[in-house]
Amino acid sequence: MNKEIRVRIAPSPTGFFHIGSARTALYNWLFARHNNGKFILRIEDTDVTRSSKEMTKIIFDALNWLGLDWDEGPDKSGDYGPYFQSERKVIYNEYAQKLIGQNKVYWCFCTQEEIEKERSECFSKKLNWQHRCHNKFASDEIEKRKKSGIPPALRFAVPLDKKIVFNDLIHGVVEKVGADIEDFVIIKSDGMPTYNFACVIDDHLMKISHIIRGVEHIANTPKQRLLYEAFNFSMPEFAHLPVILSTDKKKLSKRLGARSVLDYKNEGYIPEALVNFLALLGWSPGGDEEIMDPKRIIELFSLDRINPANAVYDETKLEWMNNHYIINRIDQAEFLELIMPFVLGAQLITGDNYKRNTEWVERVCLLMRPRLKVLKDIGKAQYFFTEDFEYDKKVLEKYLNNTNISLIKDFKMILENLRNFDARSIEDNLRNFCTEKKIKPKDLIHPLRVYITGTEAGPGLFETMELIGKENCFKRISRIIEKYETRAN
Fold first, then answer.
1. pLDDT tens across 188-221, in order?
2. What is the set of active-site residues?
3. pTM here?
4. What confidence tens digit (pLDDT) does each residue in 325-354 have?
5. What domains can be seen in the chain, in order of their start residue?
6. Torsions phi, psi of 348, nearest 5?
């Protein structure tokens, strides 16, 4: 590549910054970093009524959390600003005037109601509808509409016999004819530019070399090519990314995937794990390599390894990957720093209690670490911190019987004589007891875990019992035995 690589992410602050936007931002960032290029952040806030500062901040926070640093943008110096589209209105008007001077556009005085009626009539007749109103009104009608205060929109007059062709780096050659494209609006009736017009002007002036975006925008590209040609701009390269679907092959919902990136932060995903997962939603490094830090992904990334087929968002795989990062990709000190806000957030302890029992709390967190799909899962460790925890009633009933009660009563007597109530001593005595009783260790471990923790699953039972403590373990065992015997009587 001879020219400087310059790519951009241009989110609109009208909704949450979700997985699809994050994947698009990531691919742009990876492409720029792989090619020693520039990654630009531009905010497309021309929808004044729906754009908000709050959503803009969410975009900034999400990109920063993912580690996708930008070289130019609203908060950084750059030679091609301003980087808020709402601050570029004068620029758009200048370029609109150029098209007016070339007679390539016209003012449309159709009302929204008229356009909708026209659309509905065509659809009811199963006709291919493309709005065109050039010379639709006589001059006196136009004057009448001007005087009535109907605000016009500026439309680009699409040549009907024009053949529009462009090469997409992922999907190949795309062709369209002008007759299949409506006379599209470039300046709305409120004076603000449309997406297609503003992004062409901005991408040209910001010297964007490659436009990497979602495949839903591939339908916009023929319109944009017409504008590039009208202004005699050189065309950037286009690469349209595959759609992301849920595992049932449907569009992502707010429940699954299509939610704010910051929700993943709040649930306790490791940002590098999410970046790793997003990178593989449509792109393949080749071979069987899956776990890769950002540096490695940058090294391997190229557009020609993006698959045009729809990508599948598999939350189970994301959780597996995040668990791998929690266990293997962050050191103990970083883990403890990341997990503590979730311990406090789950109200397992207060800040003062943590200060008084720092070592014990950290031991609990480290014991739970291998079982955490997300850091928020530490909330499932409630039984370490309080006696007022919920038992899984179905599981408890499963292990409430005379055989289990008798075994645990006998084993409790052995535990009472332990001088050291530590994991090693508990395990040795349990295994010896099981040998004497001629039972398998699991026949005692399973009910014992349920009586003490209220659940069948968890970290090592012996380490768990040591951290819960002898007094609390006995109290819980006695409570279950008493409940069973009271019910039996």
1. 988 999 999 999 999 999 999 999 999 999 999 9
2. 254
3. 0.91
4. 999 999 999 999 999 999 999 988 876 766
5. 6-85+244-313 (3.40.50.620), 88-241 (3.40.50.620), 330-380 (no CATH), 393-488 (1.10.10.350)
6. -75, -30
